[in-house]
Design brief:
The chain has 15 helices and 21 strands. It is α/β, with parallel strands linked by helices and 463 residues long. A seven-stranded mixed sheet has the order 6-5-4-3-2-1-21. The chain is globular and about 70 Å long. The structure holds zinc ion (2 copies).
Length: 463
């Protein structure tokens, strides 16, 4: 068999693996390339990938860098199933529809300029109808059950602990009387992540494709981060501050809601209004609530024991722009969660314009802020920032919490791999930049005597 890397080779986005035998062709993930550079040129159907000849598409989880190119398959005539857990299906639908919306907005904006310049007009990769068509190909998968995906190939999903419904996938491939096991890690979660269960690694593989996003370091322990979180909230309540939290709609928002609930339930802290100021975050939170079967024991006990979690009366969704604008008049203590996660667009900008210059505002950064983003400027201590072309002084208290990551750090990655290591698999490190995958490769070499492959885009691995 051969596996071609159509993404996430030496970088963290665009995950896509094509496995081919003489009898079958299976694609694992088909994610979008993100984050500037020449991503437009890369977000295409690669040569050598004919959707009509695929037997199955398997999806590890709903993040755009894993599912974002799926509509290109159905647009090009793919008629087979897209296999994913029910939660992944729900979240992928939400994320792909949002992606179509963002693309149409971007293309419209660019086309206004291009038209004036006499340049040919651009088209989005896909629209909402094409996403619907893709969603109709989804087939539900349960964890820990094997099923056939092509002639001589069965698949089995196990919990990856990275986001609701996220999986690692094992393919058992029969070829010329031999059985080989290929494991795709997907994105692996940290040791402890709120709400969902931790990763359950596979125990045997002949070949493993493993993510290496944070292969170089351990994230700050969640316990320390939660102590900081508690301190910031308590202090803000004392000062009746308004707390602004830029957050990604899926995952981080629900984590923060959960940790707030913990605070309200376990300590004597009186609940204050928490505004969910993002239609997408509201929908994602509803999807989380629909899948309590995927919760860990703590979250399950919490649901039973804490009236707040069941009702969450303090959580106030503000779906419309008018609802959002009314928040300007709400006095503290309160907390407003809005996108975008890196403060590059979205409603958080309006809240920043209204609140950054006021000393009684608290900004809590709970996620990674990419280079060149407004969020990064705040983390780096900017005295003023530009929002909608206007200079805004930064008088608010800015706090950065680094321990909420949904990715395994180095120790958790090694722990996950430790379960596969005794079977001495061929290791291919993907979904990581040089900074992440090189130290991880070195560690695997030292600890297990294996020599991981660090592939490039388009490379083919044979077994
Ligand atoms: Zn992910
Ligand atoms: Zn990813």
């Amino acid at each position: 068999m051969k596996i071609t890397l159509h993404g996430a080779a030496g970088e963290v986005t665009g995950s896509a693996y094509l496995l081919e035998t003489a009898r079958a062709r299976v694609l694992v993930d088909f994610g979008m390339f993100q984050g500037g550079g020449n991503t437009d040129a890369k977000n295409v159907l690669p040569l050598g990938l004919d959707p009509k000849r695929l037997d199955a598409v398997l999806l590890t989880h709903a993040h755009l860098d894993h599912c974002g190119r799926l509509p290109l398959l159905t647009k090009a005539g793919y008629q087979g199933g897209i296999y994913a857990t029910g939660a992944t299906r729900d979240l992928a639908g939400l994320i792909l529809r949002d992606s179509a919306k963002v693309q149409s907005y971007d293309v419209e904006r660019k086309n206004r300029k291009r038209e004036r310049a006499g340049k040919p007009l651009l088209e989005p990769l896909y629209n909402a109808n094409e996403v619907d068509q893709t969603m109709s190909r989804f087939r539900d998968v349960e964890f820990d059950r094997s099923f056939q995906v092509g002639e001589g190939i069965t698949a089995r999903y196990t919990i990856a602990g990275h986001m609701l419904g996220s999986a690692s996938i094992k393919l058992t491939v029969q070829e010329k009387g031999k059985t080989r096991i290929v494991v795709f890690s997907g994105d692996i979660g940290p040791m402890h992540l709120a709400i969902i269960r931790g990763a359950v690694p596979f125990k045997h593989a002949d070949l493993v494709f493993m993510e290496s996003t944070y292969g170089d370091r351990d994230n700050k322990p969640l316990k320390e981060t939660l102590a900081e979180f508690r301190g910031i909230i308590q202090d803000a309540v004392k000062r009746r501050a308004r707390i602004l939290v830029p957050a990604f709609a899926v995952g981080r928002t629900q984590q923060i809601l959960y940790h707030l609930d913990e605070l309200f339930c376990a300590s004597k802290l009186k609940p204050f209004p928490v505004f969910l100021d993002s239609p997408m975050a509201i929908e994602a939170t509803n999807i989380y609530r629909r899948h309590p079967d995927l919760f860990d024991d703590e979250a399950k006990a919490w649901r039973r024991g804490c009236a707040l979690t069941r009702k969450q009366a303090h959580v106030k969704p503000t779906p419309t722009a008018q609802d959002s604008m009314k928040l300007n008049d709400v006095s503290g203590p309160c907390l407003i969660m809005a996108g975008s996660g890196m403060c590059t667009a979205g409603r958080i900008l309006h809240h920043f314009k209204h609140g950054l210059w006021q000393p009684d505002t608290v900004v809590m950064i709970v996620g990674y802020q990419g280079e060149g983003t407004l969020g990064r400027q705040l983390v780096d201590g900017a005295k003023s920032v530009k929002i909608f072309g206007e200079k805004i002084a930064v008088k608010a208290h800015i706090h950065t919490l680094n321990g909420f990551s949904a990715h395994a750090g180095q120790s958790a990655l090694m722990n996950w791999f430790g379960s596969l290591a005794p079977s001495k698999p061929k290791v291919v490190l993907t979904h990581g930049e040089a900074r992440g995958r090189e130290p991880l490769a070195e560690l695997i070499r030292k600890r297990h005597g294996l020599k991981p492959i660090l592939p490039a885009q388009g490379d083919v691995i044979k077994l």
